[in-house]
Each structure stands twice: as structure tokens, then as C-alpha cells.
Amino acid sequence: MNTFKTELNYHSFKSIIGDIYYIWPGPVSDSDKVNLTDERFVLINYIGLGEMAFNNYLDKIAKIFYRTEPVIIENQNKYIKDEIKKFLEKKSKEIKLTPDFLTGTDFEKKVWSELMKVPYGKTISYKGMAGLVGKPNACRATGTAIGKNPLLILVPCHRVIKSSGEMGNFSSGVKIKKFLLDLES
Description:
Distance between the termini: 54 Å
Number of domains: 2
Strand content: 15-25%
Shape: globular
Largest sheet: 4 strands, mixed
Strand order of the largest sheet: 4-2-1-5
Helix content: 25-40%
């Protein structure tokens, strides 16, 4: 059986909303290295809050890479960290990173891609999001997909609210969702 190595880097830092963990793909050889400050090339696989969510995500990707030899390396990426911090400190309205989804069904990835189109400071209902992905009667499935979003903040799942105007649920807690919505208002 042929196996190949998959290198992933991770790091964490303290932020105003808690400990943020992030994962990004690493080069498997020197020839694969790119300029890590060029936003066109900065891919990211995961942004989440807390060690438990991080470990749950690692379990998910371990199942995906079961036939490979994943190498998980603790390695800070200043560019990624600065992009997230600038957003949380209201110094930027966007995070200049490119999502690289390691997990998710085709439907989940479609939902996440549509979420990225919801403008800063705006919200959309779960029903509205279901319509955007072509499944107007699949509000619950859309909500479930939103809850599995591996890229907190970059894929702005906090911008999805109930049709009634209430906040609704949030994988990192309603308090964090309120903070993020207030940050963008």
C-alpha cells in the first residue's frame, strides 16, 4: 500500500473571545513552500475555540487521513494569527485567508461557501440560507451544516439567525455569537 505524508500545522493563542486554535496545511518538501504572507496562498483548514473543539476536529481529520501518515506540527503562523486578531479587534472587516476544507459533505461545503458571501454586519435567516443553497425546505439540515463549520469567524456562521430575529444557536455559545454580531454592528 502506498502512503503519502500529509503535514498540518497548528497553533493557539489567547483572544478576546477565548483560546483560538488554528490549523493550516504545511509543505511536504522545500519545493512546496510559498510566501506565507501572500494572501492568495494562505490556506487554512480550521479555526475554533478551545482545546476540546480542537481535539474533536483532530479526531475527524484522523479518520479522513487513515491511510496516510499525517504529521501534526505545532508551528505558529504570524500572518494567520494577525488576520484573526485584526478582525476581533475591529481593525479589519475581513480575514484574508483561503478556506481549505478537510471535512464536510458536499452539502456542508456548499452551505459554508454561501455563508462566506453574507456581508460583514449583515445577517441571514436559516430559512434564507436554505434557499440560497437550493434547499428551501431543508432549514434543519442547513442549520446542522452551519453548526459543523470548521472555520469559525472566517466562515461567518454567527451571521445566521432565526427568522424571528432571535439569535439561535451557535457552536461556540450564544455569548460568543452575540459578541461577534455586536462587533460587526
